[in-house]
């Protein structure tokens, strides 16, 4: 398994740049893999430690298959001049000054992404207008995926030969094979209850239509497609009834709302499930016409859960998918009051979580690290522990393991449900949290709907049994942990701040405002952040990479909580570089962090003045 943190960072950088330089058209992410020859595979051991957040899953045998994974990010933007393309991978280089003035900087820097790629045994390259820079693998455009080439498999026919338009960035990483059973939506031997279900997909974008068609076909469904409402309406009466219709909201001539009304008027379609695909941030006012909706971009696992839920099957160890997804905000209070221990070391994150929990009607105590959490659990009985993964003194994984051991040995009368809070809710974290005895996790920055859903499965203990008992009892009978793919809530359209680039995520600011935490959280953030910047400077002067790593992690976490996403990403890059032992460019990156913080500070101060 490659390092998902670094992979995410590279993709975020490349896709962000593609968005910045593409005024119209589309951005496509493609990927495939090829098996590495035996001699090259042996080199895996030289950099395996750089790939893995948790060493327990490192490969131990030379028989394990090693793959080269190839990624492409293709845009239809302005492209790159042939005489400038070779400069792109130099440290913090810009193609030209005019482009920089019009479009701003290139995010975290292609040089850093290139460096992260090399840490994972890969290379990076770019093509534009027929020119190429970097080191692509041999015959990368013809790599097979099944019976088709890499490009032809994913791109519509009229686009498969147009890679010279805009720019295409590619990179590779080297990673070992992991058991496929952990990745399959339908496990081997499990009844495929979607087999032969007939689905019609209506989508005017040919790329999206092809991807959705491939996904649903892979689940055993029989798929028909239409690129317009008119085509769908001409197809429906002449086909056997479909079991499901998935349609796009925004289409020319007749949109998805109007199409759904026409479909309902057809014979045999009064009760057929309709799933609407809507752009993120769009409010759907005709909710009674649809069984469910999906926010674009469509997530494969979420789409699978929704489709499976429609046909009455619980999937992916997830919480139940309601036939009709709630389109509103979660209620401010929940039906039961839980006694919760919040283990979190950052004041900003403490305040945000505390305000959310109070609004839901829960009782909350705070522990500043894992050691304090262990002490409090032995003094008082809690229904739930919200456990930050990375804390000083004792991290969340260690603390969860201690709680599990105490519960198993009978030292605790009740074992609380443990929900991890992590900024990187990915596969490596999942295995580590499982091994430590956690039951679930939510990602940072915390969102009200995610927190509400994670707590909705918890039940309070009998108030008469809150004192410590001598006989061990477990309020939660053994069951598989529920690590959930939670649908992202509809969001309001993002607002630009006082310049062309939005410094602060308006959705996060609005969520903080709704829980009456905005002003206090901003004040805490502006007080604590300069201290972290000072620690970074001191760490460089003292040659202390651990101090630099911890400071960048802290500023990443709190910046994400306040909605300063670019600043959070800069700090994440610094944290990852430091973890890999690469601090040569740290002073330059710290300078960029300080500059970005100064801009964020001005925006937040203006927010306080106007609120």
Write a concise keyword list for the protein shown above.
611 residues; alpha/beta; Heat Shock Protein 90; Rossmann fold; 4 domains; five-stranded antiparallel β-sheet; 20 helices; transferase; Sig_transdc_His_kin-like_C; transmembrane helix
Layout of SSEs?
Layout: H1 4-20, E1 27-35, H2 38-42, H3 44-51, E2 66-75, H4 97-103, H5 110-119, E3 124-128, E4 131-134, E5 144-145, E6 148-149, H6 150-154, E7 168-176, E8 198-202, H7 206-218, E9 222-226, H8 229-235, E10 244-248, H9 256-264, E11 274-279, E12 292-296, H10 300-310, E13 339-343, H11 347-360, E14 363-367, H12 370-379, E15 384-388, H13 396-408, E16 417-422, H14 427-436, E17 440-443, H15 448-456, H16 506-514, H17 518-542, H18 545-562, H19 565-579, H20 586-610
Parallel strand pairs: 8-9, 8-10, 10-11, 11-12, 13-14, 13-15, 15-16, 16-17
Antiparallel strand pairs: 1-2, 2-7, 3-4, 3-7, 5-6
Helix pairs in contact: 1-5, 11-17, 11-18, 12-13, 13-14, 17-18, 17-20, 18-19, 19-20
InterPro entries: CheY-like_superfamily, HATPase_C_sf, HATPase_dom, His_kinase_dom, HPT_dom_sf, Sig_transdc_His_kin-like_C, Sig_transdc_His_kin_Hpt_dom, Sig_transdc_resp-reg_receiver
Organism: Planktothricoides raciborskii GIHE-MW2
EC number: 2.7.13.3
